[in-house]
Amino acid sequence: MLFKKRNTKCGILRQEDEGKKIVLNGWVASRRDLGGLIFIDLRDRWGLVQIVIEPENRPDLAEKAKDIRDEFVLWAEGTVRSRSNPNTKIPTGLIEVVVEDFDIINKSELPPFPVDDNIETGEETKLRYRYLDLRRPVMQNYFAIRNKTYQVCHRYFEKNDFIEVETPVLMKSTPEGARDFLVPSRISKGKFYALPQSPQIFKQILMLSGFERYMQIVKCFRDEDLRSDRQPEFTQIDVEMSFIDRDDILNLIEGLIIELWKEVLDYDVAAPFMRMSYDEAMNRFGSDKPDLRFGMEISDITDAVRSTEFKVFNDTIGEGGIIAAINVKGGSEMSRKNIDELTEFAKKYGAKGLAWMKFANGEVNSPIAKFLDEAVISQLKSQLNAQDGDLILISSDKKRRAQTILGALRLECAKRLGIMDAVKDKFSFHWVIDFPLFEYDEDNERWVAMHHPFTSPMDEDIALLDTDPGSVRAKAYDLVVNGAELGGGSIRIFNSDLQQKMFNKLGLGDKEIEDKFGFFIKALKYGTPPHGGIALGLDRIVMTLAGTDNIRDVIAFPKTTSGLSLMDGSPSFVVEEQLKELGLKLLSEK
Amino acid sequence: MLFKKRNTKCGILRQEDEGKKIVLNGWVASRRDLGGLIFIDLRDRWGLVQIVIEPENRPDLAEKAKDIRDEFVLWAEGTVRSRSNPNTKIPTGLIEVVVEDFDIINKSELPPFPVDDNIETGEETKLRYRYLDLRRPVMQNYFAIRNKTYQVCHRYFEKNDFIEVETPVLMKSTPEGARDFLVPSRISKGKFYALPQSPQIFKQILMLSGFERYMQIVKCFRDEDLRSDRQPEFTQIDVEMSFIDRDDILNLIEGLIIELWKEVLDYDVAAPFMRMSYDEAMNRFGSDKPDLRFGMEISDITDAVRSTEFKVFNDTIGEGGIIAAINVKGGSEMSRKNIDELTEFAKKYGAKGLAWMKFANGEVNSPIAKFLDEAVISQLKSQLNAQDGDLILISSDKKRRAQTILGALRLECAKRLGIMDAVKDKFSFHWVIDFPLFEYDEDNERWVAMHHPFTSPMDEDIALLDTDPGSVRAKAYDLVVNGAELGGGSIRIFNSDLQQKMFNKLGLGDKEIEDKFGFFIKALKYGTPPHGGIALGLDRIVMTLAGTDNIRDVIAFPKTTSGLSLMDGSPSFVVEEQLKELGLKLLSEK
Predict the structure, then answer these.
(1) CB pair distance less than 8 Å for A171 and B568
(2) Under 8 Å CB-to-CB from A20, ≥6 apart: which residues?
(3) I need a surface site. Which of A148, A204, A251, B359 has the fewest CB within 10 A?
């Protein structure tokens, strides 16, 4: 069971180490018997290097090497020498190590898939054998990036005089929005803790506590039906500051992003980031997280088509909706089948149909051409800057829905036409600001908070809370990159009465407010400083830095979309005694 | 609701700022009307400074200042000037700020206790108004120390090429030792996640995954009946390394401690730390976490008293026990009442009684004197280096129990005699090593792991696993300072068969092993490197650095010993709908 400890690492050996006598520890990445020689690629966290056993000189070692298989753990002592056949594809490719002694430290059964970046193994198998999957260099690199991200964050916030504080994992259940994970209390039977969906209230309490600048890299939990890009536990970079305004937060976070991109990717991000109102983002890009790496902006063509005889347009206008369009440059090459696909795609976003116009060979091809006279077509061409080769997609619907449909089509067409590929190495950061405070929940016929109930309305809109809630703007902001939200935050309500009023507006009764948030409303009465903050999605930031779309690539031990950990088999049944101690039984039991 | 943002901070103003026009934001720490002037101590995270309103020059401001009460939030603009009556007790005491304009940003109700370091408020009230308690400078300082501890750790491990990896909070329940907190799964009804008691298995899996050097500052959870120094959630500095031996871990952690004490306290810790075997620690100090700041060591006096007629001693010796003693220097001044108290104290540790000998005025005073002849007394005096003024306490019992009793008495006497006070600013770090692998659980009549079941036995003791489990030593180590354990770790088992055998020895059947740990035993078969690690108690480290004995001082939002959060009222009842979704009902319901 003993082994000889290494004095250097596989992946860091270079030509200047030639002649050095060294000891390595690592895993067998591959083993090749070539005539007289046995070549082994030995791998550790720092990379791999070729080691050579020469049967002619050391028949004893060659004999022992016969047992070696992939993923065996070895120690090997030897001397670094130049390779006669350099491998320029790996950093250690100019040298190799002639083995003078070695031994097998531990064996490995045959792995269910090779530890190699280029494998086509199903994700389920990879998750079940996560420890083998994680050995692959591409995965090691993802977690090196994740680690770098932590370290840059810690340094950045320390430099800016922030204080890291841990907030509780066992807290009070205040279900608003997503579902809480619950933790039964054994001592207080019948009562439950909840895992935090975010430390929102606690970080605000920290501001009331006088810490002024708080940050934490913190696990959060949501018991939601998982989409493929969601995990039940995820990590936030959580920040809160006192005595500041919105721009203090925005500038702070821009500085963080600049340092992260510089240190991890050596990429220069330009600041300040563009700040675009929610209204403008929706009007121009049909999204509150627009991808600004390319154009294809939405045009409101309601005025241009107001005079046509097309019933669909006229009905929409009559109901207060809009007609809007995007010009898909070069899209006229799309086939009828492609356009049908786009129509189906649009329906997922609530479209009833999709009108379109193709411009090719000086002619217009469109199912609605008959409703549009020359002047209208000419007006549309001019407004949309359409030329031969272009495809115009038109949505007629309620304003925000028409925009959302076109926003989705814009991204879909960019994907199909290769625009996304062309911009994939660019990062376009910006802020979306001036969000509405509320959005209307049609299903439950009530106003809900667009961000959360602690978000401050704009001072000049407070009077509208009673008269026109839908038009109250919030002191809220989202950080967006390449069409993805990296995080969001707001200036908070710091007045107890206004907070109470906000909960009332959200339909909570006084009793419910007292039960759930009474302690917080009370806390606000004891000298609360103006404060605000932000929560950034660390997993999403690492995904963006690593260039992967799969959130499970950047979480060491992720769950499936059913919330299962395939490696350890959790969740699992527990013995009845454990439940009894908690004062619980399963509903299915009689 | 608007306020003027500060351009500097209260606590950092100094004489060299004289004449500067500044803006401050902060809380009113106190307000005094003195004849013509109003003095306010304004406090922010960085400290407090005196600001002065002069009614003669600015009657409008003086009028507004009448409303000001403690903990109001203000902004104030003014000019720094020298104080005519300097206050040398505070860093800003040479200057004050003459207010030229100010306003109240937010009011405060009358706090239930003053925000002051010297308060005698009950802990319950302080926990209920934690946000006020945390504003006290002494508490702010504890969390500054805690923050510094995080940052030093992050930097230290990054410098040493460690990688931070987050392990899951929702994991598999494998109750061994303490009780798990359970989290019901909604998607897999009837199944449960557990909150980690430690990321032990995951950090070992990370070694199998090739990360080689892992660290994490991580929350852990134990659903135990809380003692006053325990919390249901606590924080660990968790470390694991591959291809290393014990001394690599010890040296690494010594380096961390040195940096922490230097950076936080500017205290020079000497290395290497003393390494003492468990056996020696028990024999000499009656504790596996001995306080080495003072002597009062245990002597085994079995041989010296073997020939006496004292039945208690003879019976003990006959049953294989020992007679042991400590010499409490200067203890002869203890009254009979004091000694009775010590006897009661000893009984808590299982003593049946307590023999003692006082040396004063050249005489021996002892209830057992009649059993001891001159020669024995002389022998004892010599062995224990006893002189006039000393008190010898004697325990006769099974070896480890006698030692434990004397170990406890040693600390108690040191407390009573002022020795603890005299050494309170010293830090004595050392390692306890060579722990037994098992200890015998008398209640359940089985062997249990002294550390945990993943700890490797010493290579030379493996053969004893089958023949004499009690004498197998483990590759385990604890870090101790001043009689408190800061953390513990071990070199792990990295052989699948040995791990299986270990579980068997602990009384787990093959089926149970497969259900609970099957995935891990299997994982060990795929090329596991030799590895080991340690977990340090971050809360305990911060307590030691901060010089407090109360764990609730260093956790921002602690729970009571009943697991309650008095501030937010968790745990709390949840609505039936939430339980139904989880497939659960309360046992009390019919």
Answers:
(1) yes
(2) A8, A79, A80
(3) A251
DSSP tally for chain B: helices H, then strands E = 18, 23
Note the pLDDT tens digit of each residue in B15-44.
999 999 999 999 999 999 987 899 999 999
Interface with B, mutate which of A12, A242, A519, A561 (most B CBs under 10 A): A519
Token pair, residue B180, equals 């798990």
Contact A140, B210 (CB under 8 A): yes
Q: What is the layout of strands, in order, in the sheet containing A391-397?
A: A298-300, A322-328, A391-397, A355-360, A363-365
pLDDT tens sequence across B107-123: 999 999 999 999 999 99
> How far is Cα of residue B305 from the mean position of the Cα atoms in its chain?
40
User: Considering only alpha carbons, which residue of chain A is nearest residue B157?
Assistant: A151
Taking an 8 Å cut-off on Cβ atoms, the answer to whether A182 and B582 are in contact is yes
Contacts of B526 in chain A (CB under 8 A): 71, 108-109, 111, 129, 131-132
Answer whether A527 sits within 8 Å of B202, measured CB to CB: no
Determine the pLDDT at residue B590: 46
Structure tokens at B245: 């031996």
Indicate if the pLDDT at residue A423 is higher than 80. Answer: yes
Q: Which chain A residue has the Cα nearest residue B459?
A: A1
What tens digit of pLDDT does each residue of B202-231 get? 999 999 999 999 999 999 999 988 777 889
Domains and CATH numbers, chain B: 10-106 (2.40.50.140), 140-274+429-563 (3.30.930.10), 294-422 (3.30.1360.30)
H/E segment holding residue B247: helix B246-265
- Residue A379 phi/psi, 5-degree rounding, is -65, -45
B171–chain A nearest CA distance, Å: 6
Q: What percent of chain B has pLDDT over 90?
A: 91
3-state helix, strand, coil in chain B (%, to 5): 35, 25, 40
B176 — pLDDT class (breaks 50, 70, 90): low
**For helices B538-546 and B137-159, angle between their N-to-C axes, nearest 10 degrees:** 130
Give the number of beta-carbon pairs within 8 Å between A and B: 364
> What mean pLDDT value characterizes chain B?
95
Stretch 18-77 of chain A: residues touching chain B, C-beta under 8 Å: 25, 27-28, 43-45, 71-73
* A578 touching chain B per CB within 8 A: yes
> Any CB–CB contact under 8 A between A530 and chain B?
yes
Angstrom distance (rounded) from CA B190 to CA B507 = 27
Of the candidates B193, B495, B530, which has its C-beta nearest A571's C-beta? B193
B357 within 8 A of B366, measured Cβ to Cβ: yes
Pick from B109, B140, B189: CB nearest A210? B140
pLDDT band (50, 70, 90) for residue A376:
very high
Which residues are within 8 A (CB) of A468 and not within 5 positions of it... i.e. 6 or more apart? Answer: none
Task: Count other C-beta atoms under 10 Å from residue A394's C-beta.
Answer: 24
- Say if CB B415 and CB B341 are below 8 A apart: no
Choose among B280, B298, B264: nearest CA to B431. Answer: B280
Check if the beta carbon of residue A467 is closer than 8 Å to that of residue A501. no
Q: Which helix (H) or strand (E) is B505 found in, with range?
A: helix B496-505
Scanning the structure block, which residue is given the tokens 């205290």? B267
What DSSP letter does each residue of B29-57 carry, written as one string?
EEEEEETTEEEEEEEETTEEEEEEE-TTT
If you ran DSSP here, which 8-state letter would residue A376 be given?
H
Q: B241 pLDDT exceeds 70?
A: yes
Q: Can you give the pTM of this predicted structure?
A: 0.95
Phi-psi region of B56 (alpha: psi -120 to 50; beta: other; left: phi over 0): alpha
What span, in angstroms and rounded, lies between the C-alpha atoms of B181 and B178?
A: 10
What pLDDT does B589 receive? 54
